[in-house]
Amino acid sequence: MVSFFRRKKPETPAGSESARRYSAEELAAAFPTAPSGDAPVAPRAPDPAPVAAPVDDRAAVVEKPAEAVEESHDAARKPAVAAEPAETEVPAAAVEAPAPTPATAPAALAPEPAPAPPTPAPAPRPAPEAPAEPDLPGVANPGAAAAPAGKRGWRERLRGSAFARSFGGLFYTNPKLDEDLLDQIETALITADVGVAATTELVAGLRKRMNAREFADAHALLLALREQLLALLRPVAVPLRVARDGKPFVLLTVGVNGVGKTTTIGKLAKRFKDEGRPLMLAAGDTFRAAAVAQLQAWGERNGVAVIAQGQNADAASVAFDALQAATARNIEVLIADTAGRLHTQQGLMAELGKIKRVLQKIDPSAPHEVLMVIDGTTGQNAVSQLRQFHAAVGVTGLVVTKLDGTAKGGVVFALAREFGIPIRFAGIGERPEDLRVFDAEAFVDALLPETLGT
Ligand SMILES: Nc1nc2c(ncn2[C@@H]2O[C@H](COP(=O)(O)OP(=O)(O)OP(=O)(O)O)[C@@H](O)[C@H]2O)c(=O)[nH]1
Ligand SMILES: [Mg+2]
């Protein structure tokens, strides 16, 4: 941390794409605090002192699309325009699954300790004595340990969730198989943000089977609940397939403020880099200077080029430049960042449609994935967020982040039931390795008591 914040700003922007530095004040003012609970996210105020934007040398010679020039960056504040019809774009036919990582491979589980009483506190992280790399907020915590591989890591990180705690407490007391148990399960599911509709369905299914004397005991009922939860999530546990078809696979990240978009891009960059895929990032969050710096820091860390025009540039223009550069350089994956925006702000939502249209001037099939990042601590508000983003830009995949914190966990079921949109990844920690390919079974088993023996 120390070295980064003490670094002086260069007199002139250097020619390299990632060379721009920012002061501690700019960074402190600009890095967000993640919204919690269902509290509405405050719209971001513009930075007080705009900084001269570093201009990518290629960007200067790139011909801007007419639309990008016509519409100013402030177009988002114009009255709402009709949202584009939602569309689901499937990557090209010649697809290739990313190589399975050890983290997602079904791991042989070592025997785990006896069920922990409902104590959610995650282990404190040791403070790094002398971090070798600058400690940028939202970039990575060098002192944080990655979660153990396989199911064990999921369980370790999710056991503090309201879901896991409620069910852990409920079944710790050896409940009887009766109506009272169903009531308690209903309360636990609602409390964990599974949502009223999904909860009602789940409990009605269990009640029917209990009345038909299908369950020998409460344990059998819990196993049936596990099956029902899995049935909700299996259809959406569809991993991202990135085509290797000679043109850049464009991945556009969207979401409300502070949900973890930029951090997820950094983690994905490492994943794609490790797979040996030529990669490029586009700094499409042009509202804050520090947003560009944050992405550049991830780029530097992973040795990945970042196309940026700096603060206040037109986000669609940045995306256009980046796709042109990616095409010229035979890049396989282009990941574009965007500024966080409230799903209720029509003008800002319309700007996403513009980014998509401008990309399609170069490649009509772009973006190949519109990845919406959702903060797992958000609760039921995530449902209306996804509805609005899907209407504006056609979401094709989800990442649910911060499941390691105070997330209740249940909103994942509500999203799956309501939209059926693939959940590509889950964030269960701050390290790049903690962005896991979404695994329905590992997720459900991490939420339910270990006594189930799964
Ligand atoms: N614990 C935890 N923290 C996360 C996770 N993902 C992101 N974060 C943290 O969430 C905070 C916000 O992350 P950003 O990546 O800056 O969020 P953003 O969506 O890009 O924010 P805006 O650009 O302001 O809209 C940072 O402090 C991240 O370290 C996760 O899976 N687990
Ligand atoms: Mg960001």
Automatic annotation (TrEMBL):
Keyword flag Hydrolase: yes
Biased composition (Low complexity): 78-111, 137-150
Gene3D superfamilies recorded: P-loop containing nucleotide triphosphate hydrolases, Signal recognition particle SRP54, nucleotide-binding domain
Compositionally biased tracts (Basic and acidic residues): 55-77
Protein residues bound to GTP: 255-262, 337-341, 401-404
Primary localization: membrane
EC id: 3.6.5.4
PROSITE patterns per UniProt: SRP54
Bias type Pro residues, positions: 112-131
Reactions the enzyme catalyzes: GTP + H2O = GDP + phosphate + H(+)
PANTHER family, per database record: SIGNAL RECOGNITION PARTICLE RECEPTOR SUBUNIT ALPHA
NCBIfam families: ftsY
Protein name per its UniProtKB record: Signal recognition particle receptor FtsY
GN (gene name): ftsY
